[in-house]
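Our working data are protein records whose layout never changes between entries. The record below serves as our worked example for the rest of this section:
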Amino acid sequence: MKTKYILSIFTACLFAACSLDYNPIDTYSDVTEGVTNDSVQVAFKDKAAVLSHRQTLLRLFRDGQEHWYQDILLLGDSHSDNAYAGSPNAETTPFEVNSIEGSNPNLKRDWNGHMGNVAKANKLIVNIDKVTDPSLSDAEKRQYKAEAKILRAMIYFDMVRIWGNVPLITTEAGDITSETIEEVYPAYFPPQTDALTIYKQIEEDLLEGLQYAPDNNPQDKTQFSKSVARALLAKMYAEKPLRDYDKVIQYADELAKDGFDLIPDFGDMFEVVLVDPNLPPSQANRAIDAKARNTRESIFEAQFSSNEGNWVTWMFGRPMENWDYYFTWPKWITPSRDLISAFNSEPGDKRYAQTVVFYACDWNIYYPAENYAFMYKTRSAYNSIIKLRYADILLLKAEALIAKDQYGEAATIINRTRNRAGLRNLPASASANKESILQAYLKERRLELALEGQRWFDLVRLDKVEEVMNAVFAKDEGRPAQVYPYTGLSYILPVPQDVIDQNPNLVQNPGY
């Protein structure tokens, strides 16, 4: 046991710029940026350093597309009935056949990416009050700290829904010296915290965000605003550990007061336009841009310009701005026949054409090569990637109303998204009892939010995983054979084994 302890400390030093013979003046660590005029080591030496780090935090959801977007789609849609893995390999196939293990490389990438982002948020939260630059006002300190806490809450909300018990880190680990080993060791190798405590920390962070974060800016939805906090609170209170459907309704209504609403045309969030239709075909890749950014429906989004386009678009299909770019290998997140069948059961649903597109390609894994289905919601490098949108929160209000036995009111909300999609109101029979309205609700969320990483979490939240997922393999002819049945232990994923190997205080989730 002692040997394992020493090896763990040695491993920590490799990754933490620490030394057992530590000189705080000439050793740089990622926690510090230099020294003040009085030779005091600090994280942020002035306001400019704070603003630079704040900008880093605002860009995390632009720059970390793999773990917060691409892999969330893999879990949310390919691990549900909405999509196949797309490109069969050791990373993706386990998600579609339910054979995920702790050795999965995506899980390691996602865990490390999320924990790295938590550390970046904590750096500002822990250190901003120590900044002595008089040009940084107390109001600015409160605002920037609140923004970082909203970010931390957003990260932990994803983590706790994926893994359940995870380490809760709200401080920074100091450098390890011979005198501080006993004190610092737990910070480098934290144990897991129970999910309820994680949710309480998320709640605390978001409520502080409501106090000091900026108001919603209709022209800039990339900010950690009060509205982002309200949206996350609504989503959090719908989850079982702190479930409070009255608060789901409260925060959904507050978002409406903030000015959020469904936009008239669903496609405006996902379509692209020709910037200059007169450009010759040879320059067509310059002619594409997102149709709209910062819509009234978008609460929080990552935005991309012609200078800094997102790269994930070519993971899913044809990039509209560069038609043949990397279109030589099977793409991820292939829409399932079961999802397409759900769309076709509602003739005239305008969302279908915005969600699924068919192209000819060079592979025939799930569909004939001449008519192959692709995910279509991120179709160019310049499309915004929307992390939070009002339709999601509005439908969660319908879920809350169903839980309160207010079926007619829930149906009224569901009809709002249906009507925008070109569909008629639900039949009266749909709101006749709890089971019928719940089925209508789940179907509506599925079609409205398809291929946005929501479906798996909906099934988990409403205890529908076994019912839905153990049945889909028999009715979806394109899905590979199921490896393991879904059980109550399937609701959370395994902790990455590499992470457990590095941290002796972590334990694997049951069932893995």
Summary: Residues 79 and 95 are 5 Å apart (CA to CA).
